[in-house]
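A common beginner's mistake is to predict each chain separately and then try to dock the pieces by hand. The better habit, illustrated here, is to supply every component at once so that their relative placement is modeled jointly.
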Amino acid sequence: KNQVEQSPQSLIILEGKNCTLQCNYTVSPFSNLRWYKQDTGRGPVSLTIMTFSENTKSNGRYTATLDADTKQSSLHITASQLSDSASYICVVTILNFNKFYFGSGTKLNVKP
Amino acid sequence: NAGVTQTPKFQVLKTGQSMTLQCAQDMNHEYMSWYRQDPGMGLRLIHYSVGAGITDQGEVPNGYNVSRSTTEDFPLRLLSAAPSQTSVYFCASSYSFPQGGNSPLHFGNGTRLTVT
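With all components supplied together, the output reads:
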């Protein structure tokens, strides 16, 4: 069964600190992996999209990494801000199917 | 561009009632989809469409119908509401199809549905 697992489920950090969120997937054959940010009461917003040939991609203070061999990805947030408080969702697509596979998300709480 | 617009934002239904959740996008995207989001679970695909006149089922299609008569609109119909359909519903669209495409999925801000 194609699955996307994220860890941790929730995380609390102090403003200004860094953090790393994890995503492991079993979907195959892999096409691309995406990270989305979802603020409370809003729809998810795209942060990064990576194909199997890309190891890393940045979007401001957000840096995503991908290891297609081990089927793992991480999202690193640098110098966290209060506005980073949100859920972060890992999404994977496969080559022969017109669907997105969603992880259940990591809920990040940045405290002052 | 308004992006993806969903209406209504909130809705309360009684068991057995029917209703339509509206979704419209102004980005000329071919791919559109509906998801439900429940606490502790990832977004689950209800139905999707790869163009006007073409729809297909996702993971959890039972109790829902869709149609795609135009590129812009993709309404979701609840045929006979049940408490198990209490959820937040998101519509999303993309320029490219998931398989092999690298365009981001654009989401609306959701419809919060309660069925009593």
